[in-house]
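Good morning C.,

I know you're traveling, so I'll keep this short. The sequence:
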Amino acid sequence: MTQNDLAQAIGYRDSSGVNYHLAGNGPSEEFIRRIAELWPELFGNEMELFLAAKHGRLPGEGVSSLHQRNILMALDSLDAALAAAKAGSIRPQNATPTVAGLWEVYCDRHLPKLATSSQRAYREAFAVAEPLHHVRLHDLTRGHLARLHADLTAERGAALADKVRAVLGSLLGRAEDWGYIEQRPRMPKPNGVGRRERWLDKQEVGRLLPVLADYDDPWGDYFLALLLTGSRPAEVAAMAWRELKLDRAVWMRRQKGGSKVPTHLARPLVQLLQRRQAMTYKSDRLAARAVEWVFPSATSATGHVWPSRKAWLAIAAAAELEDTCIYTLRHTHASWMAEAGASLQIIGGQLGHRQTATTERYAHLSLAPVAAAVESMVEDMVG
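The tokens, ready to paste straight into the viewer:
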């Protein structure tokens, strides 16, 4: 189909080449509806149309300068057509994007929020996942992910395979949040035990706590809050005073995807927050930002701190903790909950897991109280 054929088919212009769908500052509702109805035939799915709009071209061919403005105005109507499609009045076939199409949206909406080094690492890892790029989301299964993970492990090493797994997990999690799929496929298990699976025992926590108490603000308090809530590092960094109900010991935590979940604040953490609420700052800029953020930053564009690997490495060295990362604190919180007898459902709720499979890594620890009770009973039974 040529550019002219396409334009005429969707009502862009009549056979004489006269534009007639434009009214005022944009295309008519009928034109929007016509585009939506012809998605399957002309583009295959909504994502290709989105990408055409983004890059200023129609799929497979360039757009002349003469027609570029009007075509872009038409494609700007994608949001309205997509809203109608999601409402059920228009529902094209094959309406889910490919993995590569989703990645384009991810790069626009989520990747810029990450540090520059993380963006580079994510792009490199996604490039390695090339065998899945053409697969549509509604066709993607755990089998696809498991085969890719196994092949990468065998051919390019366990570490790289796990990095690709993590990036795909984040990508598919966003697809779920954004409504492209109802539930992401279950991810294959990572290779071995990495730093994120490491957790601190009683002796290690005993060495860590005094180091945090004496460490420079805000990092001592920040890492202690991370340990006592089990939240994600970015969630604690962005903790806002408006989200806290200290009289009820509740934090309405904003988690991945933007939803809010109530998180219990233990008594020592409430005391820490009350102390921070009464703090004074020498810098006027920092003091102004402290009105909104629990952990303010005078230099960050967001107004609050971001997790500091440098600060954590210094704290870990002072506390003589080996082979740890910031996520070790989150894993420690969950592991101690499991050993205390909390159910996997409760642990998952505290951590903000969307899938029970993510919490199953703590299953063996949650059996500890059961094992102790059985051992005690059997000892009484058999003497």
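Safe travels,
E.
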